[in-house]
Amino acid sequence: TAAAGTFTTTAPGAGSPTPVPPSASKPLPAETPAPASQPAPAVAKPDIGKQSTPAAASAAMSYPVQGSIIREYAKGKNDGIDIAAAVGTPVRSAASGTVAAITTNTENIPILVIKHPDNLLTVYTHIDGLTVQKGDVVSRGQTIGVVRAGDPARMHFEVRNGFESVDPMKYLQ
């Protein structure tokens, strides 16, 4: 122990030698480039502006309305497809099922949901003149409403597996 009142002081940083940084004593390891990731498999994209045509009889679903696809599916951005069509054009059920819900969004635009086998749902928005009610059984191709006025006039169509949106084109081709 030091005697009372006897202390040795040094200037900051002067009391001990500065250690040599590890990077100065040995070279950095050689860089190993990350392995190139395989490109994602190409997914067929709908031809924007292409006229929708009746789905082949073998397709799981039929187009709900005839018109041009003006906005394609993009998970998290557009959970369905938008199809341009004249105001009043009949909107048809894409597949047989049961009307599960009819509601409106925050802009008071009707939303119709039809439940199908295998936990699939189809969602129809930007429609008016609904011809069905909750609980009604509908068949593929049955008129369920008409295209609502909008800018542009269009019909929004979604396919969901439970609550997860999926690309409707997989079911329409």
From TrEMBL:
Record-annotated M23ase beta-sheet core domain positions: 77-168
Disordered as annotated region, ranges: 1-57
UniProt superkingdom: Bacteria
Residue runs in coiled coils: none
InterPro entries the UniProt entry points to: Cell_wall_metabolism_enzyme, Dup_hybrid_motif, M23ase_b-sheet_dom
Pfam families documented for this protein: Peptidase_M23
Molecular function in Gene Ontology: metalloendopeptidase activity
Low complexity bias spans: 1-17
Gene3D superfamilies reported for this sequence: Glucose Permease (Domain IIA)
Ranges of Pro residues composition bias in the record: 18-38
PANTHER family (UniProt xref): MUREIN HYDROLASE ACTIVATOR ENVC (PTHR21666:SF270), PEPTIDASE-RELATED (PTHR21666)
Name of protein: M23ase beta-sheet core domain-containing protein
